[in-house]
Design brief:
The chain is of the alpha/beta class. Helices cover 42% and strands 19% of the residues. It binds NADPH dihydro-nicotinamide-adenine-dinucleotide phosphate.
Length: 456
């Protein structure tokens, strides 16, 4: 029984379910099936692939509440947010069903030849190593464009969300995708190296922590296979005097506490101009103190438990070190539910550099707030982070907007709204947040052979 992998409800510590991981021969036959399936899947007409993706979308919508319940049980996010996540996956499937063919068109190039163009050809089986924070969305963000492109998918999901991993496989099966187009491999991280190195696997994508990304990218590099990394972030959220303050505060609270704060593109460091800092801070703290923390199955809950006790302990330790390093906590003390991975939403002010607040990703409902003297000051501090995923500016001044867009070191800058992923927009980071882009046309081209064709 100690080889079993358990899903544990982080709201109360109870074991939900146990799973038997795949053994070596199980992995072997899955890889064989993937390689075999690819040989026929790559020739399936685009219209047929699109139809299957639309069926997957129908199933996601029809079964959203069932899948959402399993997500909430396994990783603790508030149920309504889990349901929203499943439905968002349907929009990704529909997006690629509708636009896939145009993204995949040959690109004509004028040369001295009679005809020259780039054709997009799929690569084969692609491994996705995925995290637990958005157990459905992170996977569909990879799978919908990948399947439309003609690749086949292999999923190694985080070990705490294996029911969701099996539910995702079920979506594709029910939608009518041929067997082997998308397979969930119930494997631990120690089995990932062998899969990446296997000749049948052509590329790997990972969303998760820096250490996991570094390991996977090194193995992919050593085997000369393309990789894409979506790692952590410590996104800056800058508020200037011309901002609509009501909207800025409301957005700041959602951007920091949505998904109980466990999002790579959550705003984590707030830089507020001195002229409005006192008012912003007062409202921000009041809004945090008003958040309802508790049972994620309840409609009124804003913030649930974190996904695991270990994640909670790591965040609690980071908060501790930032407080010892000079930060001040602005939010009220709370009594939390007893058993489970609970932590109070909190705002830490004026943390010193060299503390987790400035240097690390804080993966939970903890906001870091600083007063800044100018936009230049805000941008300089924002860019001190090793991460570069998203960023937000609240301002109505065109010159400030332009400056932020040009100077913030991030894969995305959102003006007067929170950073959010959208199937129509490319998504990805720079610096230690990773490389490559998912979603939009980029996501579809990520793992393709852009073959140059020249006809004399
Ligand atoms: P991990 O990066 O460890 O987990 C993400 C995925 O990578 C899981 O499927 C995991 O499998 C796998 N994995 C872990 N280590 C390796 C490895 N050496 N080789 C191959 N695969 C590996 O994240 P954690 O769950 O440990 O979270 C730790 C921190 O990472 C968070 O607190 C947060 O800061 C960051 N994070 C960021 C995310 C984002 O969206 N950017 C998402 C999740 C985490 P297994 O579960 O079996 O270990």
């Amino acid at each position: 029984p100690d080889t079993q992998v358990q899903s544990i409800n982080p709201a109360n510590g109870e074991v939900i379910e146990s799973f038997t991981p795949l053994n070596a021969s199980g992995i072997e036959s899955a890889l064989d099936k993937a390689a075999d399936r690819f040989l026929s899947w790559r020739n399936v007409p685009l219209a047929e692939r699109a139809e299957l993706l639309n069926s997957a979308a129908d199933i996601l919508e029809a079964k959203a509440s069932e899948y959402a319940r399993d997500i909430t049980l396994e990783m603790g996010k508030p149920l309504a947010q889990a349901e929203g996540e499943v439905k968002k996956c349907a929009t990704a499937c529909r997006h690629y069903a509708e636009h896939g063919a145009s993204y995949l068109q040959d690109e004509t190039i004028r040369t001295d030849a009679h005809r020259a163009f780039v054709r997009h050809l799929p690569m084969g089986p692609v491994l996705a190593v995925m995290p637990w924070n958005f157990p459905f969305w992170q996977v569909f963000r990879f799978a919908a464009p990948g399947l439309m492109a003609g690749n086949v998918g292999l999923l190694k999901h985080a070990s705490n969300v294996w029911r969701s991993a099996l539910n995702i496989e079920d979506v594709f099966r029910r939608a009518g995708f041929p067997d082997g187009c998308f397979q969930t491999l119930l494997i631990g991280s120690s089995d990932v190296e062998g899969v990446i190195r296997d000749n049948r696997v052509k590329a790997v994508t990972l969303t998760g922590s820096g250490p996991a990304g570094r390991s996977v990218a090194a193995i992919a590099g050593d085997s000369i296979k393309p990789s894409l990394l979506e790692l952590g972030g410590s996104d800056a959220f800058i508020v200037m005097p011309s901002a609509d303050l009501d909207k800025a505060v409301k957005t700041a609270v959602t951007a920091r506490t949505q998904n109980s704060g466990q999002s790579c593109i959550a705003a984590k460091r707030f830089f507020v101009h001195a002229d409005i800092h006192a008012e912003f801070s007062k409202r921000f703290v009041a809004a945090f103190d008003a958040l309802e923390v508790g049972d994620p199955m309840k409609d009124s809950t804003d913030v649930g438990p974190l996904a695991t006790l270990q994640i909670r302990d790591e965040l609690a330790d980071q908060v501790d070190r930032s407080l010892k390093g000079g930060a001040e906590s602005l939010t009220k003390d709370r009594t939390l539910p007893g058993k489970g991975a609970w932590i109070a939403p909190q705002i830490l002010a004026e943390a010193h550099s060299g503390t987790p607040s400035t240097d690390e990703e804080m993966f939970g409902p903890v906001a870091n707030l600083w007063k800044v003297s100018s936009l230049d000051d805000a941008i300089a501090r924002a860019n001190r982070s090793v991460f570069g995923l998203g960023s937000t500016l609240f301002s109505k001044e065109e010159a400030e907007i332009d400056k932020a867009v040009n100077e913030l070191e991030a894969g995305a800058t959102f003006i007067n709204s929170m950073v959010a992923s959208d199937p129509r927009l490319p998504f990805g980071g720079i610096k230690q947040s990773g490389y490559g882009r998912e979603l939009a046309a980029d996501g579809l081209h990520a793992f393709m052979n852009r073959k140059t064709v020249s006809v004399a």
